[in-house]
């Protein structure tokens, strides 16, 4: 059967990630929506049977979720670890040996729905946010292909409830505002520098005794 797809992105994702161009290459309709009301109106007209979210930078309102028989999200960590933002940073800074991508059902609460599928990737001792981001991009593609394949054939499983416990949500900010804390031990500082390395974005910074701010990008210099 013919599957109709519409790709939706907010203005902040339309350019840097070339979402419009990618949708065009596959022959998908593309809509740029700026408000929740526009999103709801677009999906009300489209009447989707499945809503799939990948790195959508906003909370999807309950009114939108109620329009869809099923809604799933692809999150770049092994939930329930590292809910929220900057997952590459937190996987490295917390010293994880493995991370990955999770497909889960969407709830109004961020990253809390039942887990449908996970794809793992190792985190090496010299991993940076940049190198891990590339690994997770591949894991995201693998996870998406598997889950959508299920949706189009056997159907999606109910999924497994996420474990309960102390799994914090990470907001869109870095510890210590992106500055190295002199009180950290050497291992923690080294992980912080690697976790902050994501060109062209500003990396780890430190303040010298004369008040000068220095960006640290060469680990061997420490």
TrEMBL record:
Example GO CC term: the record gives: cytosol
Which InterPro entries does the protein's record reference? Formyl_transf_N, Formyl_transf_N_sf
Q: What is the lineage of its organism?
A: Eukaryota, Sar, Alveolata, Dinophyceae, Oxyrrhinales
Q: What is this protein called?
A: Formyl transferase N-terminal domain-containing protein
Where in this chain does the record put each Formyl transferase N-terminal domain? 35-143
**Which is one GO molecular function term here?**
methionyl-tRNA formyltransferase activity
Q: Where are the transmembrane segments?
A: none
CDD domains, A to Z: FMT_core (cd08369)
Q: Which Gene3D superfamilies match?
A: 3.40.50.12230
Q: Which organism is it from?
A: Oxyrrhis marina (Dinoflagellate)
